[in-house]
Amino acid sequence: DLATIEAGQFTGLKLDEVLALEEREEMSDEEMVAYLASCQLRPDMPRGSIETLLHAFVPYAQVDHTHPDAINMICCAEGGEELARECFGDEAVWIPYVRPGFTLSKQVGEAVRNNPNARFVLLAKHGLVTWGETHEESYGRTIESINRAAEFVAGRAGEPFGGRKVEPPAPDRREALLAEVLPALRGALSSGLEEPAHKILRTDYTSDDVLAFVCGRDSEQLSQVGAACPDHLVRTKVRPLWVDFDPENEDADELSASLREGVARYREDYEAYFSRHEEADEEMFDPNPRVILIAGLGLVAAAKNAKEADLSRDFVYRAINVIRGAHALGGYVSLTEEESYAVEYWPLELYKLTLAPPPDELAGRVAFVTGGAGGIGSAVARSLASRGACVVVCDLDEEGAGEVADSLAEPGIPAKADVTDEEEVAHAYRRAILEYGGVDVVVSNAGLASSAPIEETSVEMWDKNYAVLTKGYFLVARGAFRIMKEQGIGGSLVFVASKNSMAAGKNASAYSSAKAAELHLARCLAEEGGPERIRVNTVNPDAVLQGSRIWDSGWREERAAAYGIEPDELEDYYRERNVLKVNVLPENVAEAVLHFASEARSSRSTGNVLNVDGGVKDAYPR
Questions:
Q1: pLDDT-based confidence at 438, cuts 50/70/90?
Q2: What does the DSSP assignment read for 138-203?
Q3: In angstroms, what CA-CA distances link 509 with 3, 514, 542, 578?
Q4: How far is it, in rounded angstroms, from Cα 25 to Cα 93?
Q5: Is pLDDT of 388 > 80?
Q6: pLDDT for the residue numbered 555
Q7: Distance between CA 7 and CA 574 in Å, rounded?
Q8: Between 214 and 617, whose confidence is greater?
Q9: Which residues of 527-553 are buried (b: 16+ CB within 10 A; e: fewer)?
Q10: From edge to edge, which strands make up the β-sheet containing 241-243?
């Protein structure tokens, strides 16, 4: 990525030794890779680009190779060579499709040397090459060719994609439909392998280009022609899944069924495609689609993490643009099935995959953390995000939740909710679904605390404790179960309860009994969730004063009074009363939550309790 690349990631080569290859008539990929390695300035440099020779063989100081939409509208059109001549005359050289490598590099180099009038090379079903003595000259040619191609295509543009076949529903209904069906789709896309390969979903149901395409009369047929460029194929597969949907006469349940059936059918077709072309040493990739186009509704991109899903979605935008232009020029063409397979399972392309770091243990998971703006909640959010999860930071304090979400290793999203309000909880989950496709890990952490002798405990105090700590945990758990069951790929709920759920708390009957109810609710839900592989476990912290909003309230003074000490003596008091003689920090609680959140750490654990209290004898499970 040119935005982040550093000097050590470039490969320095001895150009004279590279240019010696121009005398060769042919060269295999393996020979080319081995030879270029011998030309490196240092052996520890990364392997050079697949198109290194293309840049070397063009006899100019600056060479740019790009895949502009406007150029590929011509390169991916029926009769592209004639159209290129009409647009550029003898200023452009047309190269029929050849997979990148030695042969294509040699053809491009010879074309530039043998055509003194040429200023551009157009690669069929691929892209553009420009050159110059300076980078300004080469870049200027790139921009000029794009503008000329765009003007050429615009002069022939008609109604895009054959006109409208369906009308999209109103924006609110599009959003509501996706919120209902995405968990089912996410479950289907994460299945089909021995173990679920959790996917992050990224959608677009609002942009004009996407809506024009998914509503087009010719779009289904056009979508199945193939990728608009070899580089697109790596991100989007050979073709997307197209799902028919009639917004006027079908509902969300029918669409969910169609999506599940479509994904299953796609897997079968992909396995057949692989079987037709596989060689002995190849292993089939995930057979699920990377891109789903829903007629009248929008697009969904799926990948193992949010960044990859965003890339897939971005490549669909480019493909839609190319398809629209090529269709207007007389017909869209793409790589043949054989050519597509040769790119998708090309050893030189697969080599790039070996350079990627292994996935984090929570990659592909979506975590939903209530009370996420507080001390424990923010520590939990940071911990889960650092292990690869996409995190939804849910809190009554939306601004605080946003600050936490922005600070994560991979920025998450905030979601405002009062956990005692059924509609607000549902809306927060809807935000998670529309952003990422569903949820896998739900950490119920929102809380409050109060302390008073029973005779001074008001009904209001009692009801508030039970509203947040029991009703709130019930509403959050119920929402999680509904989504996780729809996904069908399991999940993990973690209740952040308290030492007081196990040990009686003097002058804290409302708080302690509500926390005990939390613990028992978790055990009940572990029984219900087991058959669906939904695990429910509880973490019991004690006296987490650092960063806690609860302890910034009157709770500190109230608890100090209950123990007959001064408020500023609480830290020492709590440290001395546990057997390890330690204070408990938010990060300690976050580690315990991570244990239950991670399948790698606790896939066989449900209905369990993990105390994080330094060892308080009265709270030992028994």
A1: very high
A2: HHHHHHHHHHHHHHHHHTT--SGGGSBSSPPPPHHHHHHHHHHHHHHHHHHHT-SSSS----EEEE
A3: 57, 8, 16, 22
A4: 21
A5: yes
A6: 61
A7: 52
A8: 214
A9: eebeeebbbbbbbbbbbbbbbbbbbee
A10: 200-204, 298-303, 291-294, 241-243
**Helix axis angle, 422-436 relative to 472-487, nearest 10°?**
30
CB 209 within 8 A of CB 321: yes
Largest CA distance in the chain: 98
The residues, ordered by sequence, that sit 6+ positions from 112 with a Cβ below 8 Å of its Cβ are: 58, 59, 60, 93, 118, 121, 131
- Burial of 425 (C-beta count, 10 Å sphere; 0-12/13-18/19+): buried
User: Looking up tokens 């998450």, which residue turns up?
Assistant: 412
| Residues forming beta bridges with residue 394, ordered by sequence position | 370, 415
Radius of gyration of the chain (CA): 30
φ, ψ for residue 337 (rounded to 5)?
Answer: -60, -40
Task: Report residue 562's pLDDT band, with 50, 70 and 90 as the boundaries.
Answer: confident
Helix, strand, or coil (residue 70): helix
pLDDT of residue 419: 98
Tokens representing 22? 């121009």
The rounded percent of the chain whose pLDDT value lies above 70 is: 98
Q: Which of 273, 341, 511, 574 is catalytic?
A: 511
Query: How do residues 3-32 score in pLDDT, each as one tens digit?
Result: 888 988 899 999 999 999 999 999 999 999
Question: Hey, how many other C-beta atoms are within 10 angstroms of the C-beta on 125?
Answer: 22
Helices 135-154 and 80-88, axial angle in degrees (round to 10)? 110
Is 205 one of the annotated active-site residues of the chain? Answer: no
Three-state secondary structure call for residue 295: coil
Q: What is the pLDDT of residues 112-171, one digit of tens each?
A: 999 999 999 999 999 999 999 999 999 999 999 999 999 999 988 788 999 999 999 999
| Cα–Cα dist 491/480, whole Å | 9
SS3 state of residue 475:
helix
Task: For residues 212 and 159, give the distance between their C-alpha atoms in angstroms, rounded to a whole number.
Answer: 10
Q: Are strands 298-303 and 291-294 parallel, antiparallel or unpaired?
A: antiparallel
Kindly indicate the confidence band of residue 234, based on its pLDDT and cuts at 50, 70 and 90. confident
Mean pLDDT (the chain) is 93
| Rounded Cα gap, residues 418 and 162, in angstroms | 48
pLDDT of residue 577: 84
Q: Cβ distance 507 to 451 under 8 Å? A: yes
Dihedrals φ, ψ of 483, to 5°? Answer: -70, -45
Assign 216 to helix, strand or coil: strand
Give the CA angle between residues 30, 35, 41 to the nearest 5°.
135
CB atoms under 10 Å from CB of 9, counted, come to 10
SS3 613: coil
The mean pLDDT value for 205-215 works out to 97
What letter represents residue 23's amino acid?
Answer: E
Tell me: pLDDT of 553 over 60. no
Burial class of residue 401 in the structure, from the number of CB atoms within 10 Å of its CB (0-12 exposed, 13-18 middle, 19+ buried): buried
Closest of 17, 6, 122, 12 to residue 67, by C-alpha = 122
Closest CA relative to residue 366, chosen from 477, 288, 443, 312: 443
